[in-house]
């Protein structure tokens, strides 16, 4: 390799080319140096730091020291290689490296910092540096499309110096989304459109102020995004700036059309909306007199009026008149407020009568009904033994009642509560006298029943039936008999009375007679007779029993 100041000999390894670019010297184009590297694994930076010694030691190579130039250096670059130490020659590799292609005389121009092209000199025994591939062109980004036109543009309200517009968002807003809307106006007969807002906004409602009454104004709305502005949405007719007169009207809520009931101490907070243009005047009165502002607060806005009482008292009950009027036209509404509380106890509770298991009570209505109708009375009783109160009647609408099913021997006390829409009275009326249910003396007189002659001789209602049994298997004989007095039952076998024989068990229950023959044998067969005897006569039935012997 040739460099300024001499020739540098290096081992024959793979050639790698690097260009050192000197900083500008002010005396023409930049200087360059072309050299060989000892290994493809090492790479040198094309531009070396100024006044910094850089040492590269590629693998399988001798050190190559390049001295960078100091600031302001105007000479030529010199590179030298350290002398190689004496080492044994390495063994030849099994597969020798392929020889690089023959160098060519052509070389690619090297741009310098001054913009001039310098043709580098190829190193001896090194191939020409291939030209750098041209950068691929970047694909163009798709162009953003503008949004579509805003929808449903309409006038919401018009006053004497302004009007309000509303609209809906466009169907297509683009990938980047909307930046906002721009509202423009133009007076009728002119083509000079002026923007109402300098910066786009995202609201779909806009009020345009500071207009002159009587003017006709055209208006349009444009949607703006990164792709540009949309087709404007316009009104078919210009907007006439004038006050639209509207008769006053009170929109009384449904629940306030009836009596509004609150308890004593509760807050009363009522909002009543109204309408009318221009701004109507609102006034409240009670019985034709102005309200007491120390207890009642009234707050009125452009669209409603609020009636507020912090803690209601019974004196606040009554009918309040609301009046809304505009230039001689008016509308009236009445608000009926009733402030209630629990009633007082009933009066003059007394015990009217006590008979058998019953007590009659009577009382008078309470003096104070709590500013509400009495819905009924609750009657309770308490016996002297337990002392506990039990409800006997609820919502009794009369001022008297009868209490029944009392227990004999107990003494009872009674009390009565009054009840209205707020609930029961705080206290009850207590009967001054107690009711004692006394035991009544009664004498039992049995009913005289005529005597009936029940005497009857014995009579069999179910006779005996013939039976056949097997030897060794117990069997039963049944029949039924009636008679009064109860007849005596006698069992006979072949006209011989059966006495206390453990082989036979005779029973009678409710007129049903039975005879059990236990494990009969061939000699137990024959004619069995049941005889019934009482003082009025006798009766008998018989049957035949056959005992078979299995073969």
From TrEMBL:
Residues 77-150, 442-466 are annotated as: Disordered. Residues 248-336, 458-542 form the Ig-like domain. Residues 81-90 have a biased composition (Low complexity). GO terms for cellular component: myosin filament. One of its GO terms (biological process) is cell adhesion. Keywords: Cell adhesion, Immunoglobulin domain, Muscle protein, Repeat, Thick filament. It comes from the Eukaryota. Residues 149-244, 345-446 form the Fibronectin type-III domain. Pfam families: fn3, I-set. CDD domains: FN3 (cd00063), Ig_Titin_like (cd05748). Transmembrane segments: none annotated. Belongs to the immunoglobulin superfamily. MyBP family. Binds to myosin; probably involved in interaction with thick myofilaments in the A-band. This is Myosin-binding protein H. The gene is MYBPH.
């Amino acid at each position: 390799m040739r460099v300024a100041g001499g020739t540098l000999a290096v081992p024959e390894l793979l050639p790698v080319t690097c260009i050192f670019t000197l900083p500008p010297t002010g005396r023409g184009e930049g200087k360059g140096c072309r050299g060989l590297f000892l290994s493809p694994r090492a790479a040198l930076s094309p531009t070396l730091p100024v006044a910094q010694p850089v040492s590269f030691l590629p693998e399988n190579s001798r050190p190559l020291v390049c001295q960078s130039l100091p600031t302001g250096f105007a000479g030529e670059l010199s590179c030298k290689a350290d002398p190689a130490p004496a080492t044994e020659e390495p063994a030849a590799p099994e597969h020798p490296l392929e020889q690089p292609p023959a160098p060519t005389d052509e070389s690619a121009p090297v741009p310098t910092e001054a913009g001039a092209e310098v043709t580098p000199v190829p190193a001896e025994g090194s191939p020409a540096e291939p030209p750098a591939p041209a950068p691929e062109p970047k694909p163009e980004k798709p162009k953003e499309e503008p949004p579509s036109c805003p929808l449903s543009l309409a006038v919401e309200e018009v006053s004497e110096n302004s009007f309000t517009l509303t609209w809906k968002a466009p169907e297509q807003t683009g990938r980047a989304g909307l930046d906002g809307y721009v509202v423009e106006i133009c007076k009728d007969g002119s083509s000079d459109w002026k923007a109402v807002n300098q910066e786009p906004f995202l609201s779909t409602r806009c009020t345009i102020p500071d207009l002159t009454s009587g003017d006709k104004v055209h208006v349009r709305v444009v949607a703006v995004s990164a792709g540009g502005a949309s087709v404007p949405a316009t009104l078919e007719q210009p907007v006439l700036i004038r006050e639209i007169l509207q008769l006053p009207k009170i929109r009384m809520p449904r629940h306030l059309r009836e009596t509004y009931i609150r308890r004593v101490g509760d807050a009363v907070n009522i909002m009543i909306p109204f309408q009318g243009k221009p701004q109507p005047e609102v006034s409240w009165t009670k019985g034709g007199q102005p309200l007491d502002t120390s207890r009642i607060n009234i707050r009125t806005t452009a669209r409603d009026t609020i009636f507020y009482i912090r803690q209601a008292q019974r004196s606040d009950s009554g009918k309040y008149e609301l009046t809304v009027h505009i230039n001689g036209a008016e509308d009236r509404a009445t608000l009926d407020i009733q402030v209630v509380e629990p009633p007082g106890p009933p009066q003059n509770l007394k015990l009217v009568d006590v008979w058998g298991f019953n007590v009659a009570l009577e009382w008078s209505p309470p003096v104070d009904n709590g500013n509400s109708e009495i819905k009924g009375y609750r009657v309770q009783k308490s016996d002297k033994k337990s002392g506990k109160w039990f409800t006997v009647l609820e919502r009794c609408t009369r001022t008297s009642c009868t209490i029944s099913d009392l227990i004999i021997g107990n003494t009872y006390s009674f009390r009565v509560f009054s009840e209205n829409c707020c609930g029961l009275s705080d206290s009850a009326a207590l009967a001054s006298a107690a009711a004692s249910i006394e035991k009544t003396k009664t004498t039992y007189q049995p009913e005289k029943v005529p005597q009936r002659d029940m005497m009857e001789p014995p009579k069999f209602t179910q006779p005996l039936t013939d039976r056949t049994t097997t030897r060794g298997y117990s069997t039963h004989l049944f029949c039924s008999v009636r008679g009064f007095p109860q007849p005596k039952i006698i069992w006979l076998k072949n006209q011989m009375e059966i006495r206390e024989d453990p082989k036979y068990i005779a029973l009678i229950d409710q007129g049903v007679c039975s005879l059990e023959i236990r494990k009969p044998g061939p000699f137990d067969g024959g004619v069995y007779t049941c005889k019934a005897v009482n003082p009025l006569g006798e009766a008998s039935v018989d049957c035949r029993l056959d005992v078979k012997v299995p073969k």
